[in-house]
Specification:
The protein is of the alpha+beta class and about 325 residues long. The chain has helices at about 105-110, 145-165, 165-175, 180-195, 250-255, 280-285, 315, 320-335, and strands at about 5, 15, 25-30, 35-40, 50, 55, 70, 75-80, 85, 90, 100, 100-105, 120-125, 135-145, 200, 205-210, 215-225, 225-230, 235-240, 275-280, 295, 300, 305-310. InterPro entries: FHA_dom, PP2C, PP2C_BS, PPM-type-like_dom_sf, PPM-type_phosphatase-like_dom, SMAD_FHA_dom_sf.
């Protein structure tokens, strides 16, 4: 049925659960004269953008409809600031159907004061199933839903267990005190296994193991902004890297792709993260998104050491520093 209405509530044909999308936000219709698909803003409050260009009425929020804008295959429609739709146009039997996909910014609900469902999934297995002397601790913070986080929390440990079940691989890690290749490979296999187009998650995995001398080693890999910090004999060690778009190291990585961020640009396609598991739709649209993890140096913890680790999602790190988190653990241990 035409036209196709995009909005936050029924009877819109495509309902987007985003507080920045108006009840009836925009419309897609077929122009029989030009034989082209067209997009028109229906007087939305927060505007409609086609390939980052505004197509709403110049007086935003005036409730006046915008002028129709011609659509082409591969176009990206943005409703408000976060909901993205990809346009796919195919010619089949003289008909021109349109397909749309949507990715929504998880921070929208926070900015609007809504209570968010829990999308964090934690994991702890020591020893790692089928692999003696190895253990794994992790946290996976979902956005767009908890599907990706749940999938990764199941699949990543399975891949790590399978890789380390090979005696030569396990012995190499214990002999050289380095599991970086194992962690990178497990992250790659996990990303290849999941098929979440419009959901994603952070991933922080702390792998520990014991060598022949029964010294413990810890090494971390991460995607996103869920962080891990260790304290070894009173020394604080950051085990992760911040992959938010505002991070200096992440902006430098993006610049190396040949498509640097503009000054003040703090989001990619509405997301504040540039590295994550999943979000396959966004990664297809923008090659600056990545699933290449940061891997820390291995930390040696002898039997004489006093050590602990704190692993958490941004729900903690947004309100407390890593230094303060370590102090609190020390205070609790002393009491």
């Amino acid at each position: 049925m035409l036209p196709i209405t995009l909005g936050r509530v029924p009877p819109s044909d495509l309902v987007l659960k985003d507080s920045e999308v108006s009840g009836k936000h925009a419309q897609i219709n077929w122009n029989g004269k030009t034989l082209k698909w067209e997009l028109v803003d229906m007087g939305s409050l927060n505007g409609t953008f086609l390939n980052s260009q505004a197509v709403h009425h110049p007086s935003a929020g005036s409730r006046h409809w915008g002028e129709p804008a011609e659509l082409a295959h591969g176009d990206i429609i943005t409703l408000g600031t976060s909901s993205k739709l990809s346009v796919q146009i195919l010619l089949q039997n003289q008909r021109v159907p349109a397909g749309v996909g949507m990715a929504s910014d998880p921070m929208v609900a926070r900015r609007s004061g809504k209570k968010l469902p829990m999308e964090d999934i934690s994991f702890c297995q020591c020893p790692l199933q089928g692999v003696e002397h190895f253990g794994l601790f992790g946290i996976f913070d979902g956005h767009g839903g908890d599907g990706a986080a749940k999938a990764v929390s199941k699949i990543l440990p399975e891949h790590l267990g399978y890789i380390l079940s090979h005696p030569e691989t396990k012995e190499r890690v214990q002999s050289y005190s380095d599991a970086s290749d194992v962690l990178r490979y497990a992250f790659t296999l996990t990303e290849d296994t999941i098929d979440h187009q419009y959901e994603g998650c952070t991933g922080t995995a702390l792998l520990i193991w014991f060598d022949q001398n029964k010294d413990c080693f810890a090494q971390c890999a991460n995607l996103g902004d869920s962080a891990c910090v260790m304290s070894v004999n009173g020394k604080t060690i950051d085990m992760t890297e911040d992959h938010r778009v505002t991070s200096a190291t992440e902006r430098a990585r993006i610049a190396r792709t040949g498509q640097p961020l503009r000054d003040g640009e703090a989001r990619l396609s509405g997301l504040n993260l540039a590295r994550m598991f999943g979000d396959k739709f966004l990664k297809e649209q923008d090659p600056r998104f990545s699933s290449e993890p940061y891997v820390s140096q291995a930390v040696r913890i002898t039997k004489a050491c006093t050590a602990f680790a704190v692993i958490a999602s941004d729900g903690l790190w947004d309100v407390i520093s890593t230094k303060r988190a370590v102090q609190l653990v020390v205070e609790v241990k002393r009491s």
